[in-house]
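thought: fold this chain, then report.
action: predict
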Amino acid sequence: MKQTIIDILNKLKEIPELKYVRVFNNQFQYLEDGDTYSFPFPCAFLEVLPQNYFPLLNGFSQSDVDFRIHIGHEQYDSLDGNMEQNLDVFDLRNLVLQKLVLFKPSMCSELFVVNEEQDYTHTGVYHYIVDFRGGIIDKTASNLIEPTLIDPIELQLEVSFVYPQFDFGFNDDFANGYLNTDIDKREIII
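observation:
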């Protein structure tokens, strides 16, 4: 699970508009209460919401996991005459969707959107939530030996083509032209 989380965080960090990306720890509530450090905006935090796990074989298990992205956007006035209206947060939402929809983190299926929530009680910080879901295969309890990668092996194949019998009386030109070509033997390198 750790590598899956790191992969998603790194994907979010590729969005240049996001100034701060971390794991979620209720930062917005702590910020509002004055109990935490300040962090730059716009920001995104990742929360993992595991579902039920289902056993597979040999200690492997599978779960559909929701990855909740908390987008924080600070805007006191959009200067469009609507003090309480923040539409810029939807641009950030779109950037997050463009990065994460169909993204395939380690040990996880491709991510897809399952839920969104707007912030109806925001002050100057708008807290937008987007949930993604992906199927996780957890191998933590498995005692199977993992295969190791070996150096690639160069393989050369010599292929010969066997041609069917031709009725030379049927089409002498075709048969003679076909059998006298240089494609009787080819070397294929993989």
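thought: worth noting. The longest strand covers residues 61-74.
final: tokens above.
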